[in-house]
């Protein structure tokens, strides 16, 4: 299903590079008169991003609006009786997130609901995986009665052998289905064999014409040339303050050097009038200016700021900048993290193209075989939620299979 738009889980955080994101809630009015109702077509996807059962936010809406609700979980159909404006429900969703998702201590959404029993009393606790704090919810809210009657499903931690090692890596989250392990690549209509053939064929068309030599980097970064380019590219960004030299910036901090770099790149990439090399040099110079040109997180930010749904054409175009900034395994993992966010959160319709994206990066020597193989077999919540991480890795399987077969062929040739 195509994305209806992606927003920060905490909508008070105005930072495009904030790690925790969710689909924008959508609504559809059905029926007439007394039978009118509001269907929430993507409630399952929204709830998955929040690691909560979709019945919880739907019931929360009912409690807040004084309306009846109904669920058809098998068909992912969630309904609130009456006609309700999408913006009103989004505001209520913010309330649900604040009361039942965000850690009361650190405001991080990476929490799990647990029920603590003390005698006859039951309390609902938010167990934060980020700061370790356990904070209670307001037990006076009507939703708590529903949660106690329909407690969160306890995630089994048994090791289940799969092609991508998901279970061993601790795949989980509030909305995981036990059948999810064996599901085929989401949104992919082609078989692995067909896709692998396509990958090999299309890889031949990729080239590294935009590679910049050391001489070009140094020649283009002469003080006068760089000063002129940056002045032209920055445009209205002259007022942006330079970072204070701190090593890292929080995802939540809109003034961190990483957020500044991301915003600068996004606003400047279309203003270089076809001179891609000049733009790439200026972008690197900007990272230097902010003191983060060697940081792996800069690679993550560049991937998020540069790549769009046209990523397959953009990889060879911007490859030289990544070749310059990727200097370690950690940097490669950050690039893969950027791809996770691109296809998992911003453009879910790109999931079937993951093998081609990985092949394009591999052909430009931006990814090493060992790194991408290790990444592909270990689900992580470092860059996205685990459910999204699992989907992206599942989609990468044809490329991982191709790597493995290429390795086997190489071993046979050596014998």
Describe what you observe in this structure.
With 415 residues, this protein is α+β, with helices and mostly antiparallel strands. The chain folds into 2 domains: 6-149, Defensin A-like; 190-414, Serine Threonine Protein Phosphatase 5, Tetratricopeptide repeat, CATH 1.25.40. 45% of the residues lie in helices and 10% in strands. It contains 16 helices and 9 strands. The chain has a 4-stranded antiparallel sheet, covered by helices on one side. Strand 5 and strand 6 form a beta hairpin. The longest helix has 18 residues, at 329-346. The chain is elongated and about 60 Å long.
Brief overview:
By secondary structure, the chain is α+β, with helices and mostly antiparallel strands. It has 16 helices and nine strands.
| CATH top-level class of the largest domain | Mainly Alpha
Radius of gyration: 24 Å
CATH architectural type of the largest domain:
Alpha Horseshoe
Helix content: 40-55%
Proportion of residues in β-strands = 5-15%
Keywords: GTP-binding, Initiation factor, Nucleotide-binding, Protein biosynthesis
Pfam families: eIF-5_eIF-2B, W2
Protein name: Domain found in IF2B/IF5-domain-containing protein
Domain W2: 251-413
Descriptors for this entry?
415 residues, alpha+beta, Defensin A-like, Serine Threonine Protein Phosphatase 5, Tetratricopeptide repeat, 4-stranded antiparallel sheet, 3-stranded antiparallel sheet, 45% helix
